[in-house]
Description:
The protein has about 300 residues and is an alpha/beta fold. It is about 45% helix and about 15% strand. The strands form three sheets. The protein has a five-stranded mixed β-sheet with strand order 2-1-3-4-13, with helices on both faces. It has a four-stranded parallel β-sheet with strand order 6-5-7-8. The radius of gyration is 19 Å and the shape is globular.
Amino acid sequence: MTIKEVQERIMRLKTERDVCILAHSYQSREIIEIADFSGDSYQLSVAASTVPNKTVVMCGVRFMAETVKILSPQKTVILAHPNAGCPMAEQMSVEYINTVKRDCPDHAVVAYINTTAALKTVCDVCVTSSSAVKIVEKLPQKDILFIPDCNLGAYVAAQCPDKNVKLLEGGCPVHVAVYVEDVRRARAAHPDALLLVHPECTPQVLAQADFVGSTSAIMDYAGASHNDEFIIGTEMSIVQNLQYSHSYKKFYPLSHKLICPDMRITSLVHVLQAVQGTGGEAIELDSTTITEARACIDRMIEYGG
C-alpha cells in the first residue's frame, strides 16, 4: 500500500472502531496528518481526557501513554509501538528517589512529566517544560528537588533565584548531545536565522539562544515571529513540521544529532496495526499507581500547568 492508502485505511478504521489517535509533535508528518490531536505530552493527555472515544492510540513513547491512562483510567490506551520508551523517563527508580528524599525531607519533589507512572507516585508535583518555571515559583517550599532532567532543572533554577533547587544527574540523551560548537557551525551557515532551543539542552547551549522554550513554545514563536529564518534546537522532526506549516519561512536543524530513535520507531503501519487491533500494547496500571501518580498531575493543574 502507498502512504496515502494506509492513511485512508486508518481514517476509516478509527471511525468504525471509535478510536482517537494522539501524535506527539516529534512524530513523522504522515502520522501527524491522521491524528486527531498533535502536541506535547501534556496537551495530548488533556485532549484524551476530553474526547468521547473509548479507545486512544498514543503515537509517542511509553510515559506519554501512561499519562493518558492516569488521566483517563476508564479508556483503553494503546501505545502504537510497544518498544517506544524514553531513556530519561527511566533513568531514576522509585527506590533511588525515596533514598534522596530521606536525605532532603524538606524538599518538594518536582517531577518533569517525562517520568514513569511509578516515579510520579513519590513526587509532589509534576511539570512540563513550558510550565516548570511558573509552577516552581508558586510552590510554598523554598527547597526543591527537581528530577530527572538536570538541564531543565538548571534552567528553572536560573529563572527562580529565590528557590534552592537541588539537581541529580539525569537528562535527555538527544538534547544533551548538542554542543556550543554545533551552535557556532549553525550560526555561521545561517547568519540571519534566530536560534530557538529547548531547555533540555545544556546551559552552555541555552546561553547562545535567541529563544528558549518547550516544543510547543518554539513552534508558536517561529510561527508568530516576523523573522524568516530559524535554527531549531530540538528534535529534527520539528524542522519538518514547521516547514509544512510555514512554507514561506526557512528552518534549519541545530544539529543532525537531534534525532530521537524512540520517537522515530513508530511508523504509519504501526499505527494501522494498533487501530485495527493487531499491534500496539494496551497500557495497564493498577488503581493505586493511578491514584498516587494522578495526585502530582492534579497539583500541576492546580498551580497552572
